Automatic annotation (TrEMBL):
Signal peptide (from-to): 1-17
Organism from which the protein derives: Cacopsylla melanoneura
Lineage of the organism: Eukaryota, Metazoa, Ecdysozoa, Arthropoda, Hexapoda
Assigned keywords, A-Z: Signal
Pfam families associated with the record: OS-D (PF03392)
Coiled-coil blocks: none
Record's protein name: Odorant-binding protein A10
Domain of life: Eukaryota
Amino acid sequence: MKPVYFILSLTMTVTLAYELMYDDTYYESILKNERLFNGLLECLLSDDVCSNPVFQQLKDLSPEIIETICGKCTEKQKMNFKNSTVKFKKDRPVDYDHVLTKYDPENKFRGPLEDFLNS
């Protein structure tokens, strides 16, 4: 089984305040597909508009989720976000650092995020 990744946890952890294009089942299938996950990662790290509208939506939501450490999430969603992020950081540390550098270039949120992940 492919590892669960932080990036997709962003989509699976948002509350109904976000109108996502698909349900959690769709996002879970991306987690299990290395090719799709790599496509999402490429989209998130690119400065261009993503050709996949679902990936673009995730890219648009990522800054707020990282900045607020899933601030609009329910407790269950926060747990999913935490578990997925810990797994992503462990399994793909270079990609994890690239994503955080992209969405938190001044390292304002990395400390609080790490505290959350270690709690």
